[in-house]
Amino acid sequence: MQELEERIRTEGTVKPGNVLKVDAFLNHQCDVALFDQMGKAWAEHFAGKRVDKILTIEASGIGIACVAARHFGNVPIVFAKKAQSINLDGDQYVTTVYSFTKQREFPVIVSKKFLNEGEHVLLIDDFLANGKALRGLIDICDHAGATVAGIGIAVEKGFQGGGDQLRADGFDVDSLAIVESMDASTGEIVFRH
What we know:
It is found in: Cytoplasm. Xanthine binds at residues 20, 27, 157. It catalyses: XMP + diphosphate = xanthine + 5-phospho-alpha-D-ribose 1-diphosphate. The protein has 193 residues and is of the alpha/beta class. It has helices spanning 2-11, 32-45, 60-69, 132-144, 162-168; strands at residues 13-15, 19-21, 53-57, 77-80, 92-99, 104-111, 120-128, 147-157, 173-182, 189-191. The protein starts with a helix and ends with a strand. The model has no long low-confidence stretch (mean pLDDT 93).
């Protein structure tokens, strides 16, 4: 998606350790008009596929998923929580994922009442690096008996291989911007086309 690539190029910052900071428009301050264009692009890509729900992980995926849902007939959004709380009650699907940006493992929790057998679920997230977070969501869908209809990603760090492996495993991954390489010393970002 040209507009997203341009925003990454002009407003993104490459940090040491393969970190791409895009908090000015994607995952701290949110550009809702851009999110709307992203949702439209995913709706076009996944046209004809059944989508009953959208599943994401808190926190950065929530805003993107909510705006995208409008392009899928306002389907419900379910977000996996990263910690137990007193508000989480009843039976739950729980798995553990490793966060590249946080450099630690954390639980991923979805109440069983919000994810049902036979549902077709679109996974949406802001970043895809090594694919661990998405593997956690796929695991939860598998335990629920739900089908992963596809995976919509805003920014994929293609050089980290997570997206390529998911595609090799048969998942329909639509990343709107795939970073092929980036250099913290020069700030250069190269996109895959």
